[in-house]
Amino acid sequence: MRTNTLRRGLVALFAAAISFGAITQAQAQPQADHVLRIGYQKYGTLVLLKARGTLEKRLAEQGFTVQWTEFPGGPQLLEGLNVGSIDFGVTGETPPVFAQAAGADLLYVAHEPPAPSGEAILLPKDSPIRSLAELKGKKIALNKGSNVHYLLVRALQSAGLSYTDIQPIYLPPADARAAFERGSVDAWVIWDPFQAAAEQQLQARTLRDGQGLVSNHQFYLAARPFAERNPVVLGVLVEEIRDIGEWVEDNVDEATAQVAPLLGLPSEITRKAVIRQGYGARPITPEVVRAQQAIADTFTALKLIPRQLVIESVVWTPPKRIAQHAE
């Protein structure tokens, strides 16, 4: 009974968006043919790309303008993509799995290299918990359907625990941090820069990060209709993302100086998050598809999504000339 409730709750986050989109479709403003609407989160390569302005200059040559919308997390961003308010965005590994399960018409466009240390299970500094096995029966805060959801599942499995052995408390990052500080939860599963901030400001202790458990890829995703109509635009976009990622790798201090004020965080916290991220957007490979399929299969086996998924069926295949240029 509890498993069914969990499954319904997890998929509802995305299914509600689908229903909302159907209800409001008649009221929606028609999208301009030459606008690229990008969803981004508070931290990541897209933040720097937005600040740099080079994408806008290149796409102006294609007759496109760019609009940016910030989202608090991957699940919310994919809601926006599903209801048609954005065309492109970036999330962690798990949100697109739940979105696909709920019927979102999305495509995987590119991915970043693994960044397993950029997410972790955190404990209050004075917590008596010393092992994953001690999480049994404990309240654990996480953003439902986010990348850290899979980290938590894998970490529990590694300790011989099942997902039903803990009490998940589904909260977005800001609310989860407040609950963590109050002591209302026993642990918090979170990603950077929230992870780095909690480590520095709250002296939160890392029980387990993703190393050896998950890849923690970042995925760039597009609405299928937009991708099919505008492959050249997506090709330019991926090039720009890759270029700025390579710049960050070679200019960590300068990137930190740019990102810190955008996040409202001190430089030492921001730098830690910058270093732990993966950079260099690249095409989706068969190996990445297999890894993502394993995530989908895990959640299917747990009955947290209602049906078997085929990840390969939602991978963007660019025209040959664009694919060759991206390699």
From TrEMBL:
SMART domains on file: PBPb
Gene3D superfamilies hit by this protein: Periplasmic binding protein-like II (3.40.190.10)
UniProt GO molecular function: ATPase-coupled transmembrane transporter activity
Signal peptide: 1-28
Keywords attached to this entry: Signal, Transport
Pfam families noted in UniProt: NMT1_2 (PF13379)
Record InterPro entries: ABC_SsuA_sub-bd, Solute-binding_3/MltF_N
Domain spans labelled Solute-binding protein family 3/N-terminal: 35-255
Keyword hit for Membrane: no
SUPFAM superfamilies referenced in this protein's UniProt entry, alphabetically: Periplasmic binding protein-like II
GO CC aspect terms: membrane
Highest taxon in the source lineage: Bacteria
Matches recorded under PANTHER family: ALIPHATIC SULFONATES-BINDING PROTEIN-RELATED
Similarity section: Belongs to the bacterial solute-binding protein SsuA/TauA family.
Task performed by this protein: Part of a binding-protein-dependent transport system for aliphatic sulfonates. Putative binding protein.
The name this protein goes by in its record: Putative aliphatic sulfonates-binding protein
Native species: Stutzerimonas degradans
